[in-house]
Amino acid sequence: MDEHGIGIGNRGSGDAAPAIMPRPIARDNWRAALALRVTPAQLRFVADSQPVAAIALAKAFVRPDGCRWHPYGLYAGATIVGFVAVSHDEAEAACWLYHFFIDAAWQGRGYGAAGLRALLALLAAPPFAAHAAALTVHPANTAARRLYARVGFLPTGAERDGEPVWRLALG
């Protein structure tokens, strides 16, 4: 199990990546999203408190900075295994990723990389049609930095809320 909340699977095993499907959090799955957890050691990398999904759902309701927030569950078949919140900046044609994590019980199975790739494909297509995805990563979260670099994100040199900004061109 990865202590940084990133399920990066069986490295070098040759196994196919698991199929992950992002699904919007709605009235039929919000309680399942609230049940997702990271380990206590991972929490500082994704949020200030648990359940992490509660913070993102509040942001979707309150819309801080006037941005629209889109919370997604990451599904392996019918099972929610992870979570991410997307903030869409239409003026910039970019999406920001927040609170990305795989539930502690499902880590180490490749769901982090597969979920991130599935999410990026979703963001590149309408209705988002984003030209770029951006995120911040806690400086001590080396596993997340490795994952984001492997998927193609690059550090920009900028910081947001004290964390380095990483960006990936889409499409």
The CATH architecture term of the domain at 21-132 is 3-Layer(aba) Sandwich
Separation of termini? 32 Å
Shape assignment = globular
- In the sheet with the most strands, the strands line up as 1-2-3-4-5-7-6
Report the CATH superfamily of the domain at 21-132: Gcn5-related N-acetyltransferase (GNAT)
- Largest sheet report: 7 strands, mixed
Total DSSP helices: 5
Mean pLDDT: 86
Structural class by sheet pairing and helices = alpha+beta
- Percentage of residues in strands: 25-35%
State the CATH class of the domain at 21-132. Answer: Alpha Beta
- C-alpha Rg, in Å? 15 Å
What are the secondary-structure elements, in order, as H or E?
Answer: EHHHEEEHEHEE
Number of strands: 7
The helicity comes to: 25-40%
List low-confidence stretches: 1-14
Q: Would you tell me which CATH topology of the domain at 21-132 applies?
A: Aminopeptidase
Any key phrases for this structure?
disordered N terminus, Aminopeptidase, alpha+beta, 171 residues, 30% strand, 7-stranded mixed sheet
Structure explained in plain terms:
The protein is an alpha+beta fold. The protein has a domain at 21-132: Aminopeptidase, CATH 3.40.630.30. 26% of the residues lie in helices and 30% in strands. The chain is built from five helices and seven strands. The protein has a seven-stranded mixed sheet with strand order 1-2-3-4-5-7-6. β4, α4 (111-124) and β5 form a beta-alpha-beta unit. The termini are far apart. Mean pLDDT is 86; it is low at 1-14.
